[in-house]
Amino acid sequence: MKIYTQRLERFNSNQRCENIELSFDVRQKSRFRATLKNGVDIGADLPRTGILRSGSYISTETGDILRVEAKAEKLMQVTAEHAFDLLKAAYHLGNRHVPLMLSPSALYFEPDHVLEEMVIGLGLYVEEVLHPFEPESGAYAQHHHDHRLSPIKALHHVSH
Question: What is the pTM of this model?
Answer without folding.
Answer: 0.79
